[in-house]
Amino acid sequence: MQVSFREALVYWLQLGFTSFGGPAGQIAALHREVVERRRWIDEERFAHALNFCMLLPGPEAQQLATYIGWLLHGRLGGVVAGALFVLPSALLLWGLSWLYIAHGEVPTVAAAFAGLQAAVLALIAGAIPRLARRSCRSWPGVALALFALGASALHWLSFPSLVLAGALMGALALRPAVALKSAPSAPVPLASTLRVALACLLLWWLPVGLAGVLQGWDGVLVQQGLFFSETACVTFGGAYAVLPHVAESAVERFRWLSAPEMLAGLGLAETTPGPLIMVVQFVGFLGGWRADGALSPLASASLSAALVTWVTFLPCFLWIFVGAPYIERLRGSVRLAGALAGITATVVGVVGMVALWFGAKVLVDARGELDPFALGLALAAFGALLWKEAPSAWVVVACAGIGALRGLAFRE
Predict the structure, then answer these.
(1) Cβ distance 29 to 19 under 8 Å?
(2) Is the pLDDT of residue 186 over 70?
(3) How far is Cα 311 from Cα 227, in angstroms, rounded to an integer?
(4) Taking all residues of the chain, what is their mean pLDDT, rounded to a whole number?
(5) How many CB atoms lie within 10 A of CB 371?
(6) Could you tell me which residues come within 8 angstroms of residue 343 by beta carbon, excluding any fewer than 6 positions away?
């Protein structure tokens, strides 16, 4: 079906403002619109695109939108679809980040964020059974998840090292019942691939280099550019997978923000459309706000947020425009399927570790005692998510509202 560029542009903009519900909800919304309602592509082509995007690091739904945009209108269509999937969320989260840093000390606002933290803890805990159902169906998968949990708790391996170890062990020990099917593809000119790769790499690293020249190579912009570029390359299994790596480094190594602030950022990211990995923009904003330098806090924070968002999402276009023709040929490999299953099993253990780490921050008050309100709210949110299948954004908003009401009651 022939689709006008203008019609697609209007839809991608609409999707950017309405893509709530996490990756599952976003992928379902894409399928409903582009396959069932608008009939832009057929079922087989959609499934083919989705299976490929599941192999890549980064947010699957955003990459799927990029892929479909590319199918419809070439690279320009892919850039427009992928960028508009992220841009509304980035702008909304920038405003929420400023609200948090400028007014987070107001008692009612602080109480709302305390409720929000309990909701985020429930979201992280709720992600564990969903991931486990996909990858821990055999004893090797369970063992790999437990190994990742122990290695994370004891700081034996960094997250990138764990991903590599999980892929290796999965390739050797895990055998999915059905390997992914590969589709025949035409040869791709090497010169075209190299041109696209070079353009993407230049766009990726040019802002980081400019930051180093202007601010210094030990400045916060370069630190964030390098760290989140690395993160973009290992984000297999969704945002919760890389969360421990981001939280541990941002909180304990770089000290860009505190653990409660990290939880607040996750909650804010859950309430905005777009991919959950957008939480990294909040991390960049707070790190830039507190950085020493000639710029005002807001200008520094805005530059940091923009750079972090850039280096997080630009690699997605590189994977789609360059990697698709080549990786597709490997999708029938049983060892590749096992490696991906190993990565997912590793992610289960790592997410379990981050649930314990954040739980200690949320459920224990300043006196070192268990906080009954935080525990009760987190359990209620967990139940709503797991058994009632309530939308995550509504759960987050409800918990923030309950926290704000409690703050008002105690203030009075």
Answers:
(1) yes
(2) no
(3) 9
(4) 82
(5) 17
(6) 163, 166, 167, 170, 236, 237
**Residue 314: predicted pLDDT:** 95
Q: Are 116 and 263 in contact (CB under 8 A)?
A: yes
Closest CA to 182 of 53, 331, 338: 331
If 0-12 CB within 10 Å is exposed, 13-18 middle and 19+ buried, where does residue 376 land? exposed
> Do 220 and 354 fall within a single domain?
yes
DSSP letters, 349-403, are HHHHHHHHHHHHHHHB-TTSSB-HHHHHHHHHHHHHHHTS---HHHHHHHHHHHH
Copy the structure tokens of residue 248: 């541990």
CA distances from 11 to 16, 68, 69, 267 (A): 9, 12, 11, 27
Among 78, 71, 64, residue whose Cα is nearest residue 40: 71
Report which residue type is found at 216. Answer: G
d(CA 52, CA 283) in angstroms, rounded, equals 29
User: Higher confidence at residue 254 or residue 185?
Assistant: 254
Query: What does pTM read for this prediction?
Result: 0.75
- Domain with 395, as residue range(s), is 89-411
Domain tally for the chain? 2
Query: Which of 86, 110, 127 is the last residue in one of the domains?
Result: 86
User: Cα separations (Å) of 123 from 119, 127, 129, 181, 370?
Assistant: 6, 6, 11, 33, 20
Same domain, yes or no: 275 and 185: yes
